[in-house]
């Protein structure tokens, strides 16, 4: 797959499987929209879709013209986790050496390690492993009528390690146990209150809110966003104290000298929008 942000408005669709389960990628300015397309199964992920997601994130992560990546599902539903008929291929595959290979974990890692701003647009159904997929993104925008449930216990599956660990960090042990043991559907407002989504909006306003967020991101300093991402990631990894202090000292020295700070200050004083691309 070859994509660049110069392909503005052009959609590249990756096909797989007899039911045409696929991942579509569309570049819109500096934003890439990654679309899960498996409507027959409410956009549940197949092995090929996972491989396509890995390929898409590899290309988009390396594209300097892409600053944000949006993940959403086709047909008004976000995702239904892993396709039930593809569970062995997705979660319990084998590599060339016969070792277990979890493609969903690899997708999770590709998203959490992406150097771009990642946004999940969550609407309709968000079942099974779908919340893990959304929570791998930095920001989750949810419709107020989204249907959310984490349901591995209903089919005898243990939720993947990244999903369990992130859920416990997000909602705490007691609520994580409730969600995972029961598989209960919880209202979107309650999920928002528990921190499982970043923002919630009426379904009819979701696209407009996404556009407003993207415009805000595009007007802000790429340097500030990138270094803030690194700082938050470093904090979450609990690095050795000495290394962490040294890292922050280097960052702060660089921070005061970066040209985008100078441009931002000039723009503020001149009462104009900053031109960070020229900094």
From TrEMBL:
InterPro entries reported for this sequence: ClpP/crotonase-like_dom_sf, Enoyl-CoA_hydra/iso, Enoyl-CoA_hydra_C, Enoyl-CoA_Hydratase/Isomerase
SUPFAM superfamilies: ClpP/crotonase
Annotated signal peptide: none
Record GO terms (molecular function): catalytic activity
Organism domain of life: Bacteria
Family: Belongs to the enoyl-CoA hydratase/isomerase family.
The protein's name: Enoyl-CoA hydratase/isomerase family protein
Organism field: Glutamicibacter soli
């Amino acid at each position: 797959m070859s994509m660049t942000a110069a392909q503005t408005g052009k959609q590249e669709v990756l096909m797989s499987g007899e039911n045409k389960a696929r991942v579509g990628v569309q570049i819109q300015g500096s934003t890439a929209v990654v679309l899960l397309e498996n409507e027959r199964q409410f956009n549940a992920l197949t092995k090929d879709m996972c491989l396509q997601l890995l390929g898409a994130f590899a290309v988009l992560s390396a594209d300097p013209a892409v600053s944000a990546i949006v993940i959403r599902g086709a047909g008004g539903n976000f995702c239904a986790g892993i396709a039930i008929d593809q569970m062995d291929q997705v979660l319990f595959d084998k590599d060339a050496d016969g070792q277990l290979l979890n493609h969903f974990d690899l997708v999770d890692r590709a998203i959490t390690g992406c150097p771009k701003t990642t946004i999940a647009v969550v609407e309709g159904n968000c079942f099974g492993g779908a919340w893990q997929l959304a929570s791998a993104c930095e920001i989750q925008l949810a419709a107020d009528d989204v249907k959310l449930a984490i349901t591995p216990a209903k089919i005898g599956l243990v939720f993947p390690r990244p999903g369990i660990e992130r859920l416990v960090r997000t909602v705490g042990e007691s609520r994580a146990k409730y969600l995972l043991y029961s598989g209960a559907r919880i209202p979107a407002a309650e999920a928002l209150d528990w921190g499982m989504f970043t923002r919630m909006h009426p379904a009819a306003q979701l696209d407009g809110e996404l556009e407003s967020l993207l415009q805000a991101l595009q007007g802000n300093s790429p340097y500030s966003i990138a270094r803030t991402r690194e700082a938050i990631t470093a904090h979450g990894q609990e690095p050795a104290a000495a290394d962490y202090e040294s890292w922050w000292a280097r960052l702060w020295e660089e921070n005061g000298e970066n040209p985008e700070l100078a441009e931002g200050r000039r723009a503020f004083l001149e009462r104009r929008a900053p031109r960070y691309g020229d900094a």
